[in-house]
Amino acid sequence: MGYNARRFSAFQAALMQHPAEHSPLGKSSEYVSQYAPELLFPISRTTKWAELGLTASTLPYQGMDYWNCYELSWLTPSGKPVVAIGEFAIAADSPNIIESKSFKLYLNSLNQTAYADRAEVEAVLARDLSACAGAPVAVRVRGLDEVAAEGVAALAGRCVDELEIAVSDYAHPRPELLRRGDEVVEETLYSHLLKSNCPVTGQPDWGTLVIDYRAPQLDAASLLAYVVSFRQHQDFHEQCVERVFLDLQRLLKPEKLTVYARYVRRGGLDINPYRSTESIKPGNLRLVRQ
Asked: Per the CB 3.0–4.6 Å rule, which of 5, 66, 141, 158 could disulfide with 272?
């Protein structure tokens, strides 16, 4: 058995689900530069689902969490460094999320590890991340020129950020602010003013929230006030999007609903959760802040 295979076997044997407070978040961490899959830290989705009144068998949405890594590197067999950008797609119904700092530490562990080619790196990443998530994780490793050629995406739909609203409460999400009319419409609304905080470290998470729906028309100003009410809320990216989805679903009883957020990267990683009533295959297009 080779070195990397032995390390992965040890990782599988040690893999357990832990509360977020036991993760590397908020703690001083040594940066390991040799392959170490045991650094990955799974957090069960079950607890947060329960807070929202959900179970694995009653999820009212389909979806994906897209992670993009802009600090991916390894060595060729001759010792020459390679840099690339990694894209990881994790199903919204996977048993676990992967704690973000552990994800970063794990990716750094490839820095001084040699691989034959990009395909081998993709295979290693897919194997380790799938084991941590408890479900298959799709992996793409791409060159910088390839990603640069795609450019920065512009969102379709209507931005609500210029609407005038009065805000005084930022402590927790306030679904009671949301209002709807009677006319059924199909439209896309978005806001760049989404902000929440990490539930462990308190660090800010900045993002753009997009709502695509067919239902009685959502009052745009009320949506903006609701988005702003997340400003001091503490939760992970995935659960913030799920909370928005559920609040809108209860209010609108939509024919279709898709909610997603494109978050600003931290530590070289951005996280982009998508939740939808539809079987969608969303593009993973980079916004200007990403």
From this structure: 66
